[in-house]
UniProtKB/TrEMBL annotation:
Superkingdom of source: Bacteria
Pfam families: DUF3137 (PF11335)
Transmembrane segment boundaries: 17-38, 44-65
Keyword field: Membrane, Transmembrane, Transmembrane helix
InterPro entries: DUF3137
Protein known as: Galanin protein
Length: 301
């Protein structure tokens, strides 16, 4: 990426940041001024009313005005930076910030309640080591008290061979993925999820952080090699969110539940080539896919 593009993006970032700061400052000074004026009255009821009304004003600004002001900067960042990042590591990459994943492929994994709604955007499609893949931000919202069931990045890799059965790797203490509270389980979470049995691997460090469920233990052992498990732990160590990997049909799903828009541009910090953290993740995922590709070739051929 050229320095001129970085300069232009940083100018746009600073201008967007300044506009947002000016709007919030105006709202604060307006609310403060009105309260100061009303404080001259002996009855403090007016001051309290202004204070209460100012709270939804800030909330509405954050929810509706903020996205409108950010749109130009966000679109410019994603259209310039993301393709550059992916071209560095991936093959035949395409990016569309308005499109998302095929939700049916996620629904058929039977990980979430049937009543949830899905929102997905920032779709990346391309080829990694000869394997077609898709990646996008995914937001899964359910009903009830804890309605945020998943919010993060979801990768789908297409292999030209069918995996037997289904295998899930789930980082322990995940927020909503496959929790005991899920009423749609055919069997209680623990040693079983639906008809998938929990298995333990020889790697004790891996067992400490992850649970593995499968309905084809013999098959799973060929895929989950020691080197593969090390790469999974390496990927997990760089994320504060929870990691999930699934093998089903001819697809490998890798998801990070981190309550974060991975492609969201920075607003209050300088944009530099060194600040692009996606490179390290892509490198590790590349190692995982390389290992899987080798394992699948040895096992199926």
């Amino acid at each position: 990426m050229g320095e001129q593009i970085l300069i232009q993006l940083n100018k746009l970032r600073k201008r967007t940041y300044a506009i947002l700061c000016a709007i919030y400052m105006f709202e604060f000074l307006f609310a403060f001024g009105v309260m100061l004026l009303m404080s001259r009255f002996e009855d403090g009821l007016y001051t309290m009313i202004i204070l209460i009304l100012s709270i939804p004003m800030f909330i509405l600004t954050y929810q509706y005005i903020n996205p409108v002001i950010m749109k130009t900067y966000r679109d410019a960042y994603k259209n310039e930076v993301i393709p550059y990042l992916m071209d560095e590591s991936l093959e035949s990459i395409k990016y569309n910030h308005e499109k998302g994943l095929n939700i049916n492929e996620i629904v058929e994994l039977d990980l979430f309640d049937t009543t949830v709604s899905y929102k997905t955007e920032d779709l990346l499609t391309g080829t990694l080591l000869g394997i077609n893949f898709q990646c996008a931000d995914l937001n899964v919202i359910g009903s009830g008290r804890n309605n945020q069931q998943f919010y993060g990045q979801w990768y789908v890799f297409d292999f030209n061979k069918q995996f037997k059965g289904i295998t899930h790797i789930i980082e322990k203490n995940d927020m909503q993925l496959l929790t005991e509270e899920r009423s749609s389980f055919h069997k209680p979470a623990g040693d079983y999820i639906n008809d998938l049995k929990r298995i333990k691997l020889a790697n004790q460090a891996f067992n400490k952080w992850f649970k593995v469920y499968t309905n084809h233990e013999h098959y799973a052992m060929y895929i989950l090699t020691p080197h593969f498990l090390e790469n999974v732990m390496k990927l997990e160590s760089r994320h504060y969110g929870r990691l999930f990997i699934s093998f089903y049909k001819n697809k490998v799903h890798i998801a990070v539940h981190n309550a974060n828009d991975y492609m969201e541009p920075p607003l209050n910090e300088e944009i530099t080539k060194k600040s692009f953290k996606q490179h390290a993740d892509i490198k590790t995922i590349k190692s995982i896919i390389k290992e899987l590709k080798l394992n699948v070739k040895l096992f199926f051929d």
